[in-house]
């Protein structure tokens, strides 16, 4: 879909370039979100998105602030990921003159990175994803 892995490197096709462009637009549409390491793989995307202190927050009482603030962050991230998926789909539909149809799985997986150690692990996982692509591809064929 988005390209192929050749010699442990992700080579994007036109659809992959659209996905990369849409990913890199996220902070412009959602001020307060900062992109860190990411990779657009042949059939999925991995990325680290930081929700900064400048991100929009819901107004709340001090009593409920932590819970509501957490939910507001989840909502912001959910909106950003949904918009990214929609933009990629729209870009591909327009570029390839195809009928509108979604190719994304519903939802997305997220993890809260709580410290530098976890950040380093997630970053390495993302950076190593193309190198490990063929290992996983073999397992999926069995």
Mind explaining what this structure looks like?
There is one protein chain. The chain is of the alpha+beta class and 142 residues long. The protein has one domain. The chain contains 3 helices and 4 strands, in the order ββαββαα. It has helices at residues 14-29, 65-95, 116-141; strands at 3-6, 9-12, 33-40, 45-51. Strands 1-2 form a two-stranded antiparallel ribbon. It has a two-stranded antiparallel sheet with strand order 3-4. Helix 1 runs antiparallel to helix 2 (65-95).
* Alpha-carbon distance between the two ends: 21 Å
Structural class determined from secondary elements: alpha+beta
Q: Roughly what percent helix?
A: 40-55%
The SSE string, one letter per element, is EEHEEHH
Q: What is the alpha-carbon Rg in Å?
A: 17 Å
* Largest sheet, strands/sense/barrel: 2 strands, antiparallel
Beta-strand percentage range: 15-25%
Write out the strand line-up for the largest beta sheet, numbering strands in chain order. Answer: 1-2
* Overall average pLDDT: 85
SSE topology:
Elements: E1 3-6, E2 9-12, H1 14-29, E3 33-40, E4 45-51, H2 65-95, H3 116-141
Antiparallel strand pairs: 1-2, 3-4
Q: What attributes does this structure have?
A:
142 residues, alpha+beta, two-stranded antiparallel ribbon, 3 helices
Briefly characterize the structure.
The protein is α+β, with helices and mostly antiparallel strands and 142 residues long.
């Amino acid at each position: 879909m988005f390209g192929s892995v050749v010699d442990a490197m992700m080579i994007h096709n036109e659809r992959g370039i659209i996905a990369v462009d849409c990913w890199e637009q996220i902070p412009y549409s959602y001020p307060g979100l900062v992109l860190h390491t990411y990779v657009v793989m042949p059939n999925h995307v991995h990325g680290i998105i930081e929700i900064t202190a400048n991100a929009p927050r819901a107004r709340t009482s001090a009593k409920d602030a932590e819970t509501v603030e957490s939910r507001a962050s989840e909502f912001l991230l959910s909106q950003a990921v949904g918009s990214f998926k929609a933009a990629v789909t729209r870009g591909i539909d327009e570029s390839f003159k195809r009928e509108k149809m979604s190719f994304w799985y519903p939802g997305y997986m997220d993890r809260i990175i709580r410290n530098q150690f976890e950040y380093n692990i997630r970053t390495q996982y993302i950076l190593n994803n193309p190198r490990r692509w063929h290992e996983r591809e073999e397992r999926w064929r069995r």
